[in-house]
Amino acid sequence: MGFFSSKMPKQDSSFCLLALDCDTLIIKPPKKSPLFSRTIALWFAMMCGVYIYGTCLKHVGTFTKLRGECASNPVRFFAILSMQRSGSGWFETLLNSHINVSSNGEIFSVIDRRKNVSTIMQTLEKVYNLDWFTSASKNECSAAIGFKWMLNQGLIEHHREIVEYFNRRDVSAIFLFRRNLLRRMVSVLANSYDRYAKLLNGTHKSHVHSEQEAAALSSYKPIINSKSLISDLKEAEMAVVRALEYFNSTRHMVLYYEDLVTNRTVRLVTNFHGMFIVFLDCFALRGSCRIEKLKDVQEFLGLPLMELTSGQVKIHKGPLSNLVNNWDDVDKTLNGTKYERFLHADY
Ligand SMILES: *[C@@H]1O[C@H](CO)[C@@H](O)[C@H](O)[C@H]1NC(C)=O
Ligand SMILES: *[C@@H]1O[C@H](CO)[C@@H](O)[C@H](O)[C@H]1NC(C)=O
Ligand SMILES: *[C@@H]1O[C@H](CO)[C@@H](O)[C@H](O)[C@H]1NC(C)=O
Ligand SMILES: *[C@@H]1O[C@H](CO)[C@@H](O)[C@H](O)[C@H]1NC(C)=O
Ligand SMILES: *[C@@H]1O[C@H](CO)[C@@H](O)[C@H](O)[C@H]1NC(C)=O
Ligand SMILES: *[C@@H]1O[C@H](CO)[C@@H](O)[C@H](O)[C@H]1NC(C)=O
């Protein structure tokens, strides 16, 4: 199946408009139509000029400098702010597939690092002074450096100091939330069960890379506490609202997991028989589709546009009624409430 192969061009120069360094992009016009390609090249040149003038200059002052051969390349600091089981693990693998991104994982999952404001600040300084080394750290050519941070890992508790730090050091926040909080709850319960049950041959896994593993993990159907369900959903909803309020003064963008999964590309593929239109589900077909929303993220981080890939596989698929043990209770509890929409949504 040629259209899923890795022969797809990785760097798409047609996104020149969104790239930071337009003049470093090499535009290779197709051989077929010189007039067409000359027009396109001229258009790009014009748009790049406009772009550099309009946007690049505006941000130049906000970047810090890196050393080495990329000394003159700007570096953007970011943090992915999210909640557990909202797709941030998947999202981070996608980001890290970019040659110029180093996202260093969930560094505040270690309690000592979030003990108090001073340990948090020390940890942040280490990351943003480029002193943090993990498997995700790339090289001196990283153009965006960050990590992911869960709301309940000291982020909300110490929001005042953290917002001040973000604004002072120019850290951009990427919020990643899940709209369907009921599906998130199923994932949280199943994940916390697996911590003890270790369904995958005695190993606890929060993210998987094959359909078999996904099926094994989703075979467990959690029981949802229907008595506290409404207040639990409300609490999760409020956590999101609060986070957005507190961090409103930072440079930020908000992403929803559902949009990442469903906002896929319609790709035109040519082969010997003609033109095909391929619809792809971005999570199911690993690493083989372009998620339109990721263009926004790369633009936000000032990165050259690339196609991003992840090897992760979605664990809970299909209707929620198949994934929850006491579905009738849950259905009755939410029927007629503002959370009713969670019952029927696919993602
Ligand atoms: C923060 O925690 C560290 C490590 O436990 C400790 O050494 C330090 O005194 C604490 N700082 C404050 C301000 O509480
Ligand atoms: C991205 O990384 C490549 C390879 O290390 C490097 O040549 C390029 O200059 C980097 N781009 C940016 C914008 O830092
Ligand atoms: C568990 O281990 C067996 C034997 O090593 C292997 O065949 C099977 O695929 C594993 N199952 C999972 C879910 O990893
Ligand atoms: C953030 O601030 C802007 C402008 O002050 C305001 O319009 C917006 O409603 C605020 N958003 C939140 C979530 O507080
Ligand atoms: C998909 O994402 C792109 C980029 O953010 C946006 O312009 C477009 O409107 C989105 N499409 C849908 C159907 O949401
Ligand atoms: C949901 O509520 C509607 C009326 O509001 C009712 O007709 C329907 O039977 C209810 N469904 C369930 C599963 O209770």
Automatic annotation (TrEMBL):
| InterPro entries in UniProt | Nod_factor_sulfotransferase, P-loop_NTPase
**What sections of the protein cross the membrane?**
35-54
Query: Which keywords appear in this protein's UniProt record, sorted alphabetically?
Result: Membrane, Transmembrane, Transmembrane helix
Q: Which SUPFAM superfamilies does the record cross-reference, listed alphabetically?
A: P-loop containing nucleoside triphosphate hydrolases (SSF52540)
Under what name is this protein listed? Sulfotransferase
The organism encoding this protein is Hibiscus sabdariffa (roselle)
